[in-house]
Q: What sequence folds into this?
């Protein structure tokens, strides 16, 4: 197909090609971050990992911080926020669906590499990570507050903020321990078992 027919100038990558390149750069960056840490990984190393020049990388990302931000957007706490949007509006089903969707999002190679980066570089208190967690907690609390006002869940267990933290904290703890870049299949299975059991117990307690 000619460049006139395709509507694209010769030498200019298509949107699909550009998307593939950006994804490849992000994958490479996450691998290197998990292995060598954020500070120990250079822009040049990321570009070389996928056989590209630094100028090509800069066409997709402004720098390492932009790559880190993209990784957090893809595999950080924001994944839990997406799970909220897709969960059913029935308390017990909501809790179990939320936990299952968060687990699926955090048990991917990229997400596990993000956890290795966070642990390796001591980024547990990073502002980007903390802001993402607080955002999820806030949205969870809004759901629980509405259900309490509608008398659909118990009101004697704590405030909506308490309930939000009680639901999310064990899931995040399991991620930290067993869903990192070097996790074995046995560790990942332990995370799945713990998160699923926690969600089942929480759902029963919330609606009893």
A:
């Amino acid at each position: 197909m000619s460049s006139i027919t395709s509507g694209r100038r010769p030498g200019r990558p298509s949107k699909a090609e550009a998307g593939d390149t950006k994804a490849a750069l992000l994958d490479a960056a996450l691998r290197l971050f998990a292995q060598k840490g954020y500070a120990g990984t250079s822009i040049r190393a990321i570009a070389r990992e996928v056989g590209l020049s630094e100028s090509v990388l800069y066409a997709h990302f402004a720098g390492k911080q932009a790559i880190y931000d993209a990784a957090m957007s893809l595999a950080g706490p924001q994944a839990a926020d997406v799970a909220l949007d897709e969960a059913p509006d029935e308390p017990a089903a909501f809790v179990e669906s939320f936990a299952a969707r968060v687990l699926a999002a955090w048990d991917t190679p990229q997400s596990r590499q993000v956890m290795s980066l966070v642990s390796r570089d001591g980024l547990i208190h990073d502002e980007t990570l903390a802001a993402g967690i607080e955002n999820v907690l806030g949205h969870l609390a809004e759901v629980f507050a509405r259900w309490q006002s509608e008398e659909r869940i118990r009101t004697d267990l704590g405030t909506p903020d308490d309930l939000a933290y009680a639901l999310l904290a064990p899931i995040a703890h399991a991620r930290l321990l067993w869903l990192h870049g070097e996790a074995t299949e046995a560790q990942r299975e332990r995370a799945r078992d713990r998160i699923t059991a926690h969600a089942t117990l929480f759902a029963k307690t919330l609606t009893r």
In short: Confidence is low (pLDDT under 50) at residues 1-16. Residues 18 and 60 are 8 Å apart (CA to CA). The two ends are 64 Å apart (CA to CA). DSSP finds eleven helices and no strands in the chain.
